[in-house]
Design goal:
The protein is mostly helical. The protein is built from seven helices and no strands. 74% of the residues lie in helices and 0% in strands.
């Protein structure tokens, strides 16, 4: 396996673990996620929490399977862009809150730029060779 293919496989597996873990948390601790759903979205926050949890689980699973990894990488990149408004909402809420510490506020704001390397890793995961493809 080439260095690029190995890097792509590692990206896919790491993102898969991240997404499967985060997706599971949407069902284990939904109140946290409900709180960061942008208030401008219509409907119930819990619906968005569960829908995004299902999306994260599905995308995470697709990254595990070599045959669906290319699609999974594309979907992961799109998902990381789609959830960015929730991350912004969390940062705004935490910065404005008297209940969050300075460290929590810094963490909430500091994690916003981390979406960029996540999108890059998702796009890298797309380059993992599928069965029958030797990456020439």
């Amino acid at each position: 396996m080439s260095r690029n293919a190995t890097s792509a496989r590692r990206s896919a597996l790491a993102l898969s673990g991240l997404l499967l873990g985060a997706g599971s948390l949407h069902f284990v601790a939904p109140k946290f996620f409900d709180a960061i759903v942008p208030r401008s979205l219509p409907g119930d926050a819990r619906t968005y929490t569960y829908a995004s949890g299902v999306a994260e689980l599905a995308v995470g699973a697709s990254l595990l399977v070599p045959r669906t990894r290319r699609l999974g990488g594309t979907a992961a990149a799109a998902l990381f862009v789609a959830v960015f408004p929730a991350n912004v909402q969390m940062a705004v809420d935490w910065v404005r809150s008297d209940k969050t510490s300075s460290a929590q506020k810094a963490l909430a704001v500091g994690r916003l730029p981390l979406q960029v390397p996540l999108v890059i890793a998702a796009l890298r995961a797309r380059r993992s060779p599928t069965p029958g493809h030797h990456g020439h």
